[in-house]
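Wed. Picked up where I left off yesterday with DUF6265 family protein. The coffee machine is broken again, so keeping this brief.
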Amino acid sequence: MKYLFRLLFLFSLTISAQTENEIKITDSLTPKLENIKWISGNWKGEAFGGQTEENWSEPSGGSMMATFKLINDNQVSFYEIEIIREIENSLVLQLKHFDNDLKGWETKNETVDFPLIKITPTQVIFEGMSFEKVSDNEMNVYVDIKNDEGQIEIIKFNYKKS
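Structure written out below (tokens, as returned):
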């Protein structure tokens, strides 16, 4: 019964997220960094039972870059380095994960890549991760993460600009 409830809950989240995204993606913008510069800034929030911080640079040199860290019990759990770059008339989000001692999760030449699906005035939708502008000082980031049962869960990070 518990498994069935969890499955139904995840299914409803997926349907809800798809419907919400379908409604909001009608005003498509050109895939240029200039159209997503609202992501830049120092963002703080909570997720995974701890404090999160994500710092995005302004667009320059054909890319935007970010650092991410998760702090649990006053200790860093892990870091990420992220970039969004213009490639072949589109954008791609790439990232690498690191333990708290900067030992990489991915191999030396491997990145986790998220191809662009669509940009609107308030959303940047990549395959597996999306950014939503709530206001000039608040954004939500949605990440698809595989749970212990191998199913995809959508994790929401709510950030405030600091």
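Quick read: The domain at 2-161 is CATH 2.40.128 (Lipocalin).
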